[in-house]
Amino acid sequence: MYTRNGMALDELLSIFLRWLHISSVLVLLGGVIYARWILQPALLALPEDPRRQTSERLASSFRPWIIGAVAALLVSGLYNLITKPNTPAGYHMVFGLKMLLALHVFAVAFLLGKPGVEEGKRARWMSGITVSGLIIVALSAYLRWLSR
């Protein structure tokens, strides 16, 4: 089935889900990087009680975005994997490594929205997400190159 401009609906779906995947990574990883390296140092200027309260409010405000981004990444990533026409040798090994790191990012991201977390622990979690997330982006670029 084709649309007016001749593009198949499955092609439109593929483009939309690729956009959703990339946008979700931007929200999740970009939000964590901003919170860890911009917001958290700025909050250090506040006295302890207001800083803790603000940090808690920020974490609880980010939680729905985390849940949405993770859900979108799972759906779009599964679609991308299932519809991938070409998986050359070595692809699944690198993909498995990427998935293990993604599961780490998802698990720790969910913990970020948890109330009552000590600020230093939250900072370490965000640092870990940053490192793992950037490695995932590099592995994704390699997988894209590998399957061209």
Describe this structure in words.
This protein has 148 residues and is an all-alpha fold. The protein has helices at residues 9-43, 48-82, 91-112, 119-146. The chain has one domain (9-146). The protein is 81% helix and 0% strand. Helix 1 (9-43) packs antiparallel against helix 4 (119-146). It starts with 8 loop residues before the first helix and ends with a helix. The mean pLDDT is 93.
Q: Number of domains in the coordinates? A: 1
Mean pLDDT: 93
Overall 3D shape: elongated
Measured between the Cα atoms of the first and last residue, the distance is 26 Å
Q: What is the H/E order?
A: HHHH
Q: Bin the strand percentage.
A: under 5%
Alpha-beta content class: mainly alpha
Q: Helical proportion? A: over 70%
SS elements, strand count: 0
Q: Mind summarizing the main beta sheet? A: none
Rg of Cα set: 18 Å
Low-pLDDT regions: none
Discrete helix count: 4
